[in-house]
Amino acid sequence: RMMRNMSTTEADRIYRFIFEHAEVSGEEIHLSNVLKGMTEFKKYPYAVAKLLAECTVAVALLADTMKIKGSISLSMSQSGALIQHLNVACRNSMEVKAVAVHSVTDNEPHEFRELIGKNGVMAITVIPDDGDRYQGMVPVAGNGIADCMTEYFQQSEQLAAKFMIFADPDAPQGPEAGGVMLRVMPSDNPSKRKEDFSGFCMLLDTLKPDEVYTLPGEKVITRLFGAEGVTIFNPHDIVFRCDCSRERCLGMLKALGRNEAENVIAQNGGRVSVRCDCCGRNYSFGADEIRALF
After folding, report:
1. C-alpha–C-alpha distance, residues 24 and 197, integer Å
2. Mind listing the pLDDT tens digit for each residue in 215-267?
3. Sign, CA torsion 261/262/263/269
4. What is the bridge-based pairing of β-strands 134-139 and 121-128?
5. Which of 5, 54, 103, 214 is least enclosed by beta carbons within 10 angstroms?
6. With contact defined as beta carbons under 8 Å apart, do 242 and 249 qualify?
7. What's the angle, vertex CA 91, arms to CA 185 and CA 70, rounded to 5?
8. CA 99/CA 278 separation, integer angstroms
């Protein structure tokens, strides 16, 4: 059975579902427009764009389960790796942004460990609007972000979870990403829960990337688990939203002070460009607009 609202498009949505006779819950997600927003002004090589998309899927799956107002981020840093720093953040309102600092010079696939280094660390940080932040850190595990997320749940949450995550930055209709997460819930019968979870994981292993990219979310869930008795809840929309704006850039220029701002104007021939490190959007300001700040 299903509770649904079809007033919005299928792209960039996340569905939550529960099994009616098992202490296991799940999420299904598909992203397209979010990925286009991430790369509209900032182009990444194939391998970097793919990992960034996979991490965005993982963070959005976590954010949709948050019970507090705030944000959650995933970051990986390793000096000497092809990707020196990667960060994806998502608010509980499902607004996401992402950035990667890298030294990849080709547009070819690269192994996960080659990208993030052999001794990389993944950090998941929860930042409530009110209260103290919480961070869990785990060594990078396995051969992809799905393995890392499974390890995070095992170590930090003390709960079993399974992730299937796919991404194709070069899909014919534009970048695509998505996947499914399963996780156990507190139970009075852990042995039955373990057996149920194992069976659902075997079903999840049959999931194909094209199904995630082309089928509506509820059809993906019912194809995998329809025979198990599953309730699918109304989907949530996901959007890309960077914090940058002309106003913030002007505030940064004003903070330089009049003398330093004049130096910047002179060094740039009377017109100053400010590029957002996160989304790559460029903001241009004339000398008169900057001088009017003072």
Report:
1. 7
2. 999 999 999 999 999 999 999 999 999 999 999 999 999 999 999 999 999 99
3. positive
4. antiparallel
5. 5
6. no
7. 80
8. 5
Instruction: Say which residue the tokens 């003072």 belong to.
Output: 294
User: Mind listing the pLDDT tens digit for each residue in 79-93?
Assistant: 889 999 999 999 999
Q: What is the DSSP string of 158-195?
A: -S-EEEEEEEETT-TTS-EEEEEEEEE---S-HHHHHH
15 phi, psi to nearest 5 deg? -110, 135
- What is the secondary structure of 44-100 as a DSSP string? --HHHHHHHHHHHHHHHHHHTT--SSEEEEEEEE-TTSSEEEEEEEEETT-EEEEEE
Q: Which of 275, 283, 281, 284 is nearest to 39 (CA)?
A: 281
DSSP-derived secondary structure for 188-232 = S-HHHHHHHHHHHHHHHTT--HHHHHHS-HHHHHHHHHGGG-EEE
User: Which of 147, 121, 146 shows the shortest CA–CA distance to 136?
Assistant: 121
Amino acid found at 270: G
- For the segment 136-145, what is each residue's pLDDT rounded down to a tens digit? 888 887 889 9
Sort strands 239-240 and 95-102 into parallel, antiparallel or unpaired.
Answer: parallel
Residue type, 156: S
Structure tokens at 261: 């701002």
